[in-house]
C-alpha cells in the first residue's frame, strides 16, 4: 500500500522538526550539504522493562523515502516563513535546491518482525548530510511508535500463549494515524485481527468484532437482542453476556445457540467484559459445556494487558480469545520507545571515512562510531548473541570476543565457526533506489513469531528477564575507546 498517497494524498517532506530545516539550510550555506555521512537509528533500553524489542515500521519508512521530495505547496509555505527582521527565513536559491532534491541515500535496516536489542542499529542511513539530517525526525517518528506497539503486542501474545488476540484499540488510540499505525504494528506483534475497519482495508489485516452493550440495551430484553443479532449474523454470533447479569446472560446465549443449531448454524461464543473474569469465564465454561457447546469460545475483555492476562492464565481462567484495546495501542505503561538517530561517520574532503563519537557524562549515551552492522549467531536454532562490527572487518571464525558497550569488563567469547549467522541490516535503498522486496504483512507477522521462537524463554520473561548478550566486536570496541580517550584529551586541553 502507498501510505503517503493513500492516507495523506500529500507530500510529507515537511513532517520534520524545524531545526532539521535550519540545519539543512546551514549545511547548504556552508557548502556541506552534499558531504557524505552515516547515521544510525537505535534505542538504549527495551520498553516495558522487558528483555526484547520487536522492530516495526519499515514499510512506512520506505514509503516516506520514496516520496521524499518538496512539492510546490511545501516550498510556498517555506517561502512564506520570515525571520524576526521580516526577511525570508530561507533564501530563494535554497528553496530551488530543495525543489531539485532527489532522494539518493543508501538505507540498510532490520526487517520488520526482527527481534532487536539496545544499541544495535535498526536503520542505517548513508548519504548527503543534508538528506540524512532531514530524515531524522520522520524516521524516528515512524520506527519508535510501531516498534513500541509491535513489542507490546508480542508481550501480550506471549502472555496468551499464542491464543487469538482481537485488537480493539481504535476508540482510545492516539488520534487517527496513531490508531492505524498501532493496528498495523499490533498485527505484526502477533494480534489476530483488528476492529479497525480502515486498517483492514489499508493493510489487509483480518477484521473482526462482537457487539456492544448498546445493542443489548436498545431491545426490551437481552434474549430478544441475542435473537435479533442471530437473525442478522447467524454465522458470526459472539454474544456479550454481561450487560445485566453475566450468568443469566450465558443462559440466554445458550438458548439462542440452541435456536441457531436447530437452523444448522453454530454460535461462535460469548464475550465477558466486566467483573471477575476468572470466576465468570470458569462458570460460563461449565454452563456451555453442560449445554453441549464445548467448542463455543469465551472472549475476555476489559482493560487487559500482558500482566492481567498472565494472572488470568495462572488462575486457570477459561478465556480462550482475548480482546485487548487501550493498554495495547497506547503502550499504556510506556508511551514512547526513545530510539535516537546519531551521526557515526562522515566522509572527509580526502574521501576517507572518519568515525565520529559523541561524548556524554552518561556512558550509556556514548554512541558507537563507524559504519557498522550486526550479526546474530545461532546454535541449534537458538540465538546465542548479537555482534556489532565494523562492516569491513573480517571476523575470526575460530574465536572472537564481544564486549558489552556499557561495561567493557563484561565480555563473551564466541566461536562463529560453530554457529549459523544472520546479518541483521538488509539493504533497502541503494543510491535512493528501492532494492528491497517488501514482504506481506502476514510474512512479517510470521517472521516476528519465528524470531521470538529462536530466543530462550528466559529472555522473554515479562518481568526481570535474563539479559541477552549483545556486544561490540573487539576492533570496534578499541576504535570506540580510542576515540573516547582522544575526545576526552581534546576536551581537557591535554593534547
Ligand atoms: N480474576 C481477575 N484477576 C485479575 N484481574 C482481573 C480479574 N478479573 C478482572 N480483572 C481486571 O480487573 C480490572 C478491573 O475490573 P473491575 O472488576 O473493576 O471492572 P468492572 O468494574 O467489573 O468493569 P467495568 O468498569 O468495565 O464495568 C480490569 O482490568 C480487569 O481486566
Ligand atoms: O478495555 P480495552 O482493552 O480498551 O478494550 C476495548 C473496550 O472497549 C469497549 O468498551 P467501552 O468503550 O464500551 O467501554 P467500557 O470500558 O465502559 O466497557 C469494550 O467493551 C472493551 O472493554
Ligand atoms: O467488537 C468488539 O467486541 C469491540 C470492538 C471495539 C471495542 N470493544 C469491543
UniProtKB/TrEMBL annotation:
GO cellular component: cytosol
Pfam families: NAPRTase, NAPRTase_C, NAPRTase_N
Domain Nicotinate phosphoribosyltransferase C-terminal: 373-479
UniProt pathway: Cofactor biosynthesis; NAD(+) biosynthesis; nicotinate D-ribonucleotide from nicotinate: step 1/1
Residue ranges occupied by any Nicotinate/nicotinamide phosphoribosyltransferase domain in the UniProt entry: 165-350
Superkingdom of this protein's organism: Bacteria
NCBIfam families in UniProt: NAPRTase_put (TIGR01513), PRK09243.1-2 (NF006695), PRK12484.1 (NF009131)
Protein name: Nicotinate phosphoribosyltransferase
Amino acid at each position: 500500500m502507498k501510505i503517503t498517497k493513500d492516507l495523506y494524498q500529500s507530500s510529507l517532506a515537511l513532517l520534520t522538526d524545524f531545526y532539521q530545516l535550519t540545519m539543512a539550510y546551514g549545511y547548504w550555506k556552508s557548502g556541506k550539504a552534499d558531504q557524505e555521512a552515516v547515521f544510525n537509528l537505535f534505542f538504549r533500553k527495551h520498553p516495558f522493562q522487558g528483555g526484547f524489542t520487536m522492530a516495526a515500521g519499515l514499510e512506512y519508512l520506505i514509503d516516506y523515502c520514496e516520496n521524499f521530495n518538496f512539492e510546490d505547496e511545501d516550498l510556498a509555505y517555506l517561502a512564506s516563513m520570515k525571520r524576526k527582521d521580516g526577511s525570508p527565513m530561507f533564501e530563494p536559491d535554497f528553496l530551488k535546491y530543495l525543489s531539485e532534491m532527489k532522494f539518493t541515500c543508501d538505507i540498510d535496516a532490520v526487517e520488520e518482525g526482527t527481534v532487536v536489542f539496545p544499541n544495535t542499529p535498526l536503520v542505517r542511513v548513508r548519504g548527503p548530510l543534508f538528506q540524512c539530517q532531514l530524515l531524522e525526525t520522520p524516521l524516528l517518528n515512524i520506527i519508535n511508535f510501531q516498534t513500541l506497539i509491535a513489542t507490546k503486542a508480542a508481550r501480550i501474545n506471549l502472555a496468551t500463549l499464542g491464543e487469538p488476540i482481537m485488537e480493539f484499540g481504535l476508540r482510545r488510540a492516539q488520534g487517527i494515524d496513531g490508531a492505524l499505525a498501532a493496528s498495523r504494528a499490533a498485527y505484526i506483534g502477533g494480534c489476530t485481527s483488528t476492529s479497525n475497519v480502515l486498517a483492514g482495508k489499508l493493510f489487509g489485516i483480518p477484521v473482526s468484532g462482537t457487539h456492544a452493550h448498546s445493542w443489548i440495551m436498545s431491545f426490551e430484553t437481552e434474549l430478544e437482542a441475542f435473537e435479533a443479532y442471530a437473525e442478522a449474523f447467524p454465522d458470526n454470533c459472539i454474544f456479550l453476556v454481561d450487560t445485566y447479569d453475566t450468568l443469566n446472560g450465558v443462559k440466554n446465549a445458550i438458548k439462542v445457540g440452541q435456536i441457531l443449531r436447530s437452523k444448522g448454524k453454530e454460535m461462535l461464543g460469548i464475550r465477558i467484559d466486566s467483573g471477575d473474569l476468572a470466576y465468570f469465564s470458569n462458570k460460563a465454561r461449565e454452563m456451555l459445556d453442560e449445554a453441549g457447546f464445548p467448542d463455543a469460545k469465551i472472549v475476555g475483555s476489559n482493560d487487559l494487558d500482558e500482566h492481567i492476562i498472565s494472572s488470568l492464565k495462572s488462575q486457570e481462567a477459561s478465556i480462550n480469545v482475548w480482546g485487548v484495546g487501550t493498554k495495547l495501542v497506547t503502550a499504556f505503561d510506556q508511551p514512547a520507545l526513545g530510539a535516537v538517530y546519531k551521526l557515526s561517520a562522515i566522509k572527509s574532503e580526502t574521501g576517507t571515512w572518519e568515525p565520529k563519537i559523541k561524548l556524554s557524562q552518561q556512558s550509556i549515551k556514548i554512541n558507537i562510531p563507524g559504519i557498522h552492522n550486526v550479526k546474530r549467531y545461532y546454535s541449534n536454532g537458538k540465538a546465542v548473541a548479537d555482534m556489532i562490527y565494523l562492516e569491513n572487518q573480517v571476523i575470526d571464525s575460530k574465536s572472537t570476543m564481544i564486549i558489552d558497550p556499557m561495561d567493557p569488563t563484561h565480555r563473551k567469547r564466541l566461536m562463529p565457526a560453530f554457529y549459523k549467522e544472520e546479518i541483521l541490516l538488509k539493504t533497502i535503498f541503494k543510491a535512493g533506489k528501492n532494492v528491497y522486496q517488501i514482504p506481506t504483512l502476514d510474512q512479517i507477522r510470521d517472521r516476528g513469531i519465528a524470531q521470538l521462537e529462536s530466543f530462550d524463554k528466559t529472555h522473554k520473561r515479562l518481568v526481570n528477564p535474563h539479559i541477552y548478550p549483545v556486544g561490540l566486536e573487539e576492533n570496534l570496541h578499541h576504535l570506540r575507546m580510542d576515540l573516547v580517550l582522544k575526545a576526552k584529551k581534546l576536551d581537557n586541553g591535554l593534547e
